[in-house]
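Consider a concrete sample entry:
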Amino acid sequence: MAQREPEDVVERALVRIRRDQQARRLHHTAADPVAASSVDAARFRYLDALEEAADGMAISAIGQAIGVDRPRASRLTTELLHDGLIERRPDPDDSRYALVRLTAQGRALVDDIHRTRRVAVAEALAAFTPEESRLFADLLDRFVTAWPRPD
């Protein structure tokens, strides 16, 4: 069997990870439809973007961070406000604008998703030696840092 090019191997691995995460989300949907309705990819990217922003972010900045236009970011904001996962408050520097931040419920959901992913990573790394795990983590971090970003 011919050896595949690294680009092909990595690209296919990324596809498998994305598919497996989607299948896991769908499995989670069956177990808890209310929670699952809040964790589709766009909503999670939105919530995840807010994770580090204790003071909140403007809707336009969130849209830019997750790669959606302003109308889509506004629709996501409305949905997540309705679900109680975010809150909106006036920007103290400019009352014409609003800042959005996670509610306690939103933070708990983001934390839960991160925990679930860390468990999956630990399971995948279980057959690796500690040295292999460290090398893989370092190389993956380097790969992600080098990944082309949109301007």
Notes: The CA atoms of residues 48 and 63 lie 12 Å apart. The radius of gyration is 18 Å. The first strand starts at residue 57 and ends at 58. Strands lie at 57-58, 86-91, 94-102.
